Write the structure tokens for this entry.
Amino acid sequence: MNDVTRLQEILADSPIGTILPTVAQINLPNWWLAGGAVRNTVWRALFGQDCQLFIKDFDIAFFDAAGDRTQELAAKTALTEQFPHYQFDVKNQASFARWRAGRRKYTSTEDGIRDWLHTATTVSVCLDDQFQWQFFTPYGLDDLFAGIIRPTPTHVNDPDAERKAASFLQQCPCLQLA
């Protein structure tokens, strides 16, 4: 079994597999579900009870250069109504630099996700128009499946990335720093 098939099997049998069709129906432009929901789901599947990282929220990134924050709020409201026991963080990567000081402008959702703190956090999933699973893995899947915490190139020597990595290790001591 290849890593993409393995990833899909793990995610399909989790809350991600439940919410993904609803996210797809919201029709956000160029959307991806990424971040801790994907990373923590995989690490829990790999390391079991030794890993106490859980899904805190579902990070949904999209890109609409003409859009504004109302899209984010509308999508979050719709998802929360459908899944009241989950939290959603919906962000337009086109407007990210406007409200997040010090960030550069992104040219696509993928450009924004590539800039997230850690390689395993950038692993992204969506459903296409035919509800087929699609993956965006800008740094591959090796770190995710090996339990390696590695900063993305932008965040090497970044105190935020180091602080976050330390919290991952506290909750999941099976992980390794790159």
